[in-house]
Amino acid sequence: MKLSSAIWLLLRVIFLLYGIYGGFSPEMTASRDWGGFVAIPLMMPPVIIGSLYFRSIFGRDMSDPYSLTKPFFPIGRYPFRAYLVTAVWFLSSGGVGLGYNLLFNHILSTLAVCFFATGLLLLLGLLIWKHSRTV
To answer: Which residues contact 67 (CB under 8 A, 6 or more apart)?
Structure first.
């Protein structure tokens, strides 16, 4: 593995660990209004699909989108990989926050649910866009 490939893999691991660490944050236990936290994840699929559609028109690099060793930054050049890393970050942070709060605090945290749902709907948007390009 080349050094640059190892660096991109290491950055992905660092983002994942940072997301997991964020799941244990005291902010994850705060009680908030559910209204806004429901609207934010629901906006993700149309925003991602539209963003990827317009970026693909302008010749951005969409090759090998699931590679762990290729660059994902800057987002303008590698949008699919950057959104995939973001989705995994939201899933890890929200999933850990959700599990921790349910097991130890016996609460359903709005922020953890929002993060987890955002990650899931980001992935859904990516899958819809990818499927629409292969059909």
So the answer is: 81
